[in-house]
Amino acid sequence: MVNIRTLIVAIFVLLSESVMATEDLESFKTAEHERVYRELVAELRCPRCQNQNIADSNALVAKDMRNKTRKMVADGASKQEVIDFMVGRYGEFAHYKPPVKMSTVILWLAPALFIIYFLYRIRRQSTRFTTHGRQNKRNEQWNEQQELELKRRIEELERRGDTK
Amino acid sequence: MTQLHTPNKQEKSLIIRFLPVIFFACIVVVFYFALFADPFERPSELEGRPLPEFQLPDLYTDGVSYSRDSLLGEPFLLNVWGVWCVTCRYELPYLTQLKNEQGVKIVGLYYDQEHDPEFGIYADVPKIREDVVNMLSQFGNPYHINILDLDRDLLLDLAVTGAPETYVIDADGKILLHHLGEVNERVWNEKIAPIWNQL
């Protein structure tokens, strides 16, 4: 029962999205314009809302931004020109793909650093617990510390031998 | 030599072991501040830029229109408002007080939500005028003039997200401040007056 209900809800959700997407698209002459428009309304962020793109928002400002986007695209503006227009007014806030700058570089670096850090952890853990690694560690300890101790004792014995 | 190095190594591994905890603590601090941050308190792109060019009609009188140049010459507040805007009702009495007591020149930019020619919906201007007169007689009229931007083109150029919003504009038409939300005594004293009093 629950599964069927979930399925029905899922179908309705899928259908509603396709209906919403076609609402604004009638005026486009070329498929290319339509594609650019679709990308833009998904990428531009409603400045009035809490984390919604302008395609999903019913706020008046989002509607006006969609209208402006449609007009600009129909007049032959490139995708970047529309983005520059909106960001020039509403700030970087209005675009979901922030540019790489000094203040935003951490957004790109952080995931990479995480992966490197955890790979390092995993490697350390795996070498620590294999017998091979343990054996190596013991040998190293023997070589470094006890070798010195051994040399020292030999020298001491030799010195004693000299004094005799 | 080797014995001196071993505790250092342990310290290092201790830091590495606690790195996730340190990272988690950092996230908690960031989220704590984000929780209480006002999402509309963000730097405006408009500040420091000139008031955009426009040519728009007077709210009350047909045939009278304003442009950027016709507003310049002395500093003023540009106040975006509408009769539908609830916060504006709380703001109007205070703005009227500013006009009467401190002689602040306030230009109204009327924000209409209905007008949408693309979908065949046209604003009823006589009705807007009637509503405006009613509302201003009830809450006070702080406006030197009122500009009607039915197509919301200037509103888009000014990056308006809603109403009320207020801009401080100097005599040369430069936008010095873009405030989102209500202007009240606290906002005036803390945010607007320090800029306004230097003009």
TrEMBL record, chain A:
<dbReference type="Pfam" id="PF03918">
    <property type="entry name" value="CcmH"/>
</dbReference>
<keyword id="KW-0472">Membrane</keyword>
<protein>
    <recommendedName>
        <fullName>Cytochrome c-type biogenesis protein</fullName>
    </recommendedName>
</protein>
<feature type="domain" description="CcmH/CycL/Ccl2/NrfF N-terminal">
    <location>
        <begin position="10"/>
        <end position="148"/>
    </location>
</feature>
<keyword id="KW-1133">Transmembrane helix</keyword>
<dbReference type="InterPro" id="IPR051263">
    <property type="entry name" value="C-type_cytochrome_biogenesis"/>
</dbReference>
<dbReference type="InterPro" id="IPR038297">
    <property type="entry name" value="CcmH/CycL/NrfF/Ccl2_sf"/>
</dbReference>
<comment type="function">
    <text>Possible subunit of a heme lyase.</text>
</comment>
<comment type="similarity">
    <text>Belongs to the CcmH/CycL/Ccl2/NrfF family.</text>
</comment>
<keyword id="KW-0732">Signal</keyword>
<keyword id="KW-0479">Metal-binding</keyword>
<dbReference type="InterPro" id="IPR005616">
    <property type="entry name" value="CcmH/CycL/Ccl2/NrfF_N"/>
</dbReference>
<feature type="transmembrane region" description="Helical">
    <location>
        <begin position="102"/>
        <end position="120"/>
    </location>
</feature>
<keyword id="KW-0408">Iron</keyword>
<feature type="signal peptide">
    <location>
        <begin position="1"/>
        <end position="21"/>
    </location>
</feature>
<keyword id="KW-0349">Heme</keyword>
<keyword id="KW-0812">Transmembrane</keyword>
TrEMBL record, chain B:
<dbReference type="InterPro" id="IPR017937">
    <property type="entry name" value="Thioredoxin_CS"/>
</dbReference>
<keyword id="KW-1133">Transmembrane helix</keyword>
<keyword id="KW-0812">Transmembrane</keyword>
<keyword id="KW-0472">Membrane</keyword>
<feature type="transmembrane region" description="Helical">
    <location>
        <begin position="14"/>
        <end position="35"/>
    </location>
</feature>
<keyword id="KW-1015">Disulfide bond</keyword>
<dbReference type="InterPro" id="IPR013766">
    <property type="entry name" value="Thioredoxin_domain"/>
</dbReference>
<dbReference type="InterPro" id="IPR036249">
    <property type="entry name" value="Thioredoxin-like_sf"/>
</dbReference>
<keyword id="KW-0676">Redox-active center</keyword>
<feature type="domain" description="Thioredoxin">
    <location>
        <begin position="45"/>
        <end position="197"/>
    </location>
</feature>
<dbReference type="Pfam" id="PF08534">
    <property type="entry name" value="Redoxin"/>
</dbReference>
<protein>
    <submittedName>
        <fullName>Redoxin family protein</fullName>
    </submittedName>
</protein>
<dbReference type="InterPro" id="IPR050553">
    <property type="entry name" value="Thioredoxin_ResA/DsbE_sf"/>
</dbReference>
<dbReference type="InterPro" id="IPR013740">
    <property type="entry name" value="Redoxin"/>
</dbReference>
<keyword id="KW-0201">Cytochrome c-type biogenesis</keyword>
